[in-house]
Fold this sequence. Notes:
Blueprint: H1 2-24, H2 34-38, E1 52-55, E2 59-62, E3 65-66, H3 75-84, H4 90-101, H5 108-116, H6 123-134, H7 139-146, H8 153-179, H9 194-202, H10 208-221, H11 230-240, H12 245-256, H13 264-279, H14 285-297, H15 315-327, H16 332-351, H17 362-372, H18 380-402, H19 414-422
Antiparallel strand pairs: 1-2, 2-3
Helix pairs in contact: 3-18, 5-6, 6-8, 6-12, 7-8, 8-9, 8-18, 9-10, 10-15, 10-18, 11-12, 11-18, 12-18, 13-16, 13-17, 14-16, 15-17
The protein binds carboxymethyldethia coenzyme *A.
Carboxymethyldethia coenzyme *A (CMX) binds next to loops.
Amino acid sequence: MLKAKLASQIPDLKERVRNLGKNHGSKVISQVTVEQVLGGMRGIKALICDTSEVGLDYGLKIRGIPILELTNKLPEDILWLMLTGELPSEAESKDLQKELNSRMNVSDYVWDILNAFPADAHPMNVLSALVTALGNDSKYRAEYDKGLKKDLFWEYTLEDSLDLIAKMPVIAAAIYRKRFGKGEKILPKKDLDWGANYAHMLGIEGNQEEWYKLMRMYMVVHSDHESGNVSAFTSHVVGSALSDVYFSLAAGLNGLAGPLHGLANQECLKFILETLNHFGKVPSDDELRAFAKDRLDRGLVIPGYGHAILRVTDPRFTASLEWGKKVIPNDDRFVMVEKLFRIVPDLLIEQGKAKDPWPNVDAATGALLYHYGVKEFEYYTVIFSVSRSLGINSQLILSRAMGEPITRPKSVTMDWLEKEANK
Ligand code: CMX
């Protein structure tokens, strides 16, 4: 059903691209300052992303819908929404779920690679390798090699994306069980939705319904964050060379593994556990303020705070905060999340460096995962990656549908920049 829906929408999308280029190609929509060139291209409008947008004063909207209105949806509904611009009907949602469930089988050579990794490998190293390895079965690449027409690129990209999204929870759960000595892999269940299946395959004990619900919510809120962030942008650039989605997603995930990006959620819980360990209890507000200030004075960042675009509390943080308040208000890790939220913004404002002193998505999720039993924080960015595969793949499919060309901005030398600036 998803393929048919996209096939009905894509001609119109192509037409819009053609018309814009033909009728308005020379219109100026953004200017570039020296500061932006020196400062990570912040704020330059030079990418198209229809799946989602991030407003500095409201945060993430998926196809125009604020993320806090979507937290009760299934992740596969969000995938449908990102690709088509509409939430699926119940029949469409079930059909996509069935489609994903039928693609979860992973070839043995991939498991051989997992088993070849040393026992102490970082889970993100393993995930990146396994995603690349899955590309051996790329349908897009096989067709491209036979001579695929450009108009059909998106169809085989969709095929690969559905395969890859279906297998992400399978390989991610297997990495968890192998890396942290949890025993044999757990097979997916045919009757579970995508997010719940991932929760099931991790093999966490306790209240399964609540755990499944948390995992679905986590998958939804981390699914996309427009296309200028490190992981989505990297995947876009690699995909623009017509590399398949396995290469593209793996490249993006390598960026997500950086501590200023997705690895921050591991760093957040690490910081919370270290603080609890340091004090031997939940510290008082004054103790925590002094501890965090010392960290800032030593030139270290407070993980989970600040953002390149946002200038308000990240609504994705709010989703986790609300969950924690309802379900685990007395858990020490969660009490720390709330305390940090009371203390850190003022400290960052006082320090005067961070443009955004508010918490981002990563500041609270670790405490929730820890409570439900995923205590190995080195694994957290893998969970983030499974979720983000929804958005990155959606972006890659739409980019192929629009026929976007290879990405190739112009670089300049320092000499040129200095001369230009001094003119
Ligand atoms: N703690 C301490 N200092 C911070 C800070 C924080 N949480 N956030 C920003 N700053 C500092 C920067 O390090 C920078 O310092 P220098 O001028 O000495 O280099 C200064 O404030 C200005 O930075 P900025 O313009 O406000 O922030 P950027 O757009 O450059 O970077 C981000 C944004 C997220 C990388 C940064 O806020 C940060 O490092 N935060 C902590 C890590 C984190 O939580 N990352 C997760 C982001 C969400 C995600 O992508 O997953």
